[in-house]
Design brief:
The chain has one domain: Aldolase class I (TIM Barrel, Alpha-Beta Barrel). It is α/β, with parallel strands linked by helices and 259 residues long. Strands 5-4-3-2-1-9-8-7-6 form a 9-stranded parallel sheet. Helix content is 46%, strand content 14%. Belongs to the TrpA family. This is Tryptophan synthase alpha chain.
Length: 259
């Protein structure tokens, strides 16, 4: 069974907590240990961020980590090798979250094939909407890669249904109209938005952009199956003084997110 299909079947039991980690941040040699720490902390899946110089959906924290990763020499090929190393010791679902440009630079078909070969399970590509995704999804399907499309608070019922229909195992509801970044509170109307998503979508969905605390998890789950947390985690990692403490911070942060 596909790892993300297996995860999708658990929707509604306990909330999924899915961390986002920019590969190569804060240093290439720390990525594998951080992935291990996130799994020990209870991650249900991990989003591995593919750094890009113009991450249009991301706020200042992820922008900064992406640039630091690129400055440190991170490449797409190295990220896939790191996923392969993690996969040799873990069966945790892995999604690559990134923009189309680095994938095109690698070679789209070659990227999908290599991603599948090393143990990637799915893709989140914010700058590819459903209307433009068909040829890419065909290649991803051939490689047995799940595709996760994004919906926004401005998405109406028809758009929510389209996102649901096009996503392979689950979709991603963006919590705010804006870029990624941790927030003290989520929008007041998020319950109405997620209720509409629940009534319009047949597959599970996760919520991200702004999730930073356990109270946010309980605020959106249910109806969401889970959450994605990125900026708050990366900020905590970045504030730790050395590699050992960063690993511990990552593990502890994940544990603290559980309601």
């Amino acid at each position: 069974m596909h790892r993300l299909e297996r995860l999708a079947k658990t929707a509604g039991t306990s909330p999924w907590v899915i961390p986002y980690l920019t590969a190569g941040y804060p240093a290439k040699e720390e990525t594998l240990d951080l992935l291990r720490a996130l799994e020990r902390g209870g991650a249900d899946a991990i989003e591995v961020g593919l750094p890009f110089s113009d991450p249009l959906a991301d706020g200042p924290v992820i922008q900064a980590t992406s640039q630091a990763s690129l400055d440190g020499g991170t490449t797409t090929a190295w990220i896939l090798e790191t996923v392969a190393a993690f996969r040799r010791e873990s069966d945790l679902p892995i999604l690559v979250m990134g923009y189309l440009n680095p994938m095109m630079r690698f070679g789209l078909e070659a990227f999908f094939e290599k991603a599948s070969e090393v143990g990637v399970d799915g893709l989140i590509v914010p700058d590819v909407p459903p209307e433009e995704a068909k040829p890419l999804q065909s290649m991803a399907d051939k490689a047995n890669l799940s595709w996760v499309f994004l919906a926004a608070p401005t998405s109406g019922v028809q758009r929510l249904k389209q996102v649901d229909a096009c996503s392979t195992h689950f979709s991603y509801c963006v919590a705010v109209t804006g870029v990624t970044g941790s927030r003290q509170s989520l929008p007041d109307d998020i319950k109405n938005y997620l209720a509409e998503a629940k009534s319009s979508m047949e597959k599970p969905f996760v919520v991200g952009f702004g999730i930073s605390e356990a109270k946010h998890v309980t605020q959106v789950c249910p109806p969401a199956a889970g959450v994605v947390v990125g900026s708050a985690l990366l900020k905590a990692i970045g504030e730790a003084p050395n590699p050992a403490s960063r690993v511990q911070v990552a593990e502890d942060f994940m544990k603290a997110l559980r309601p």
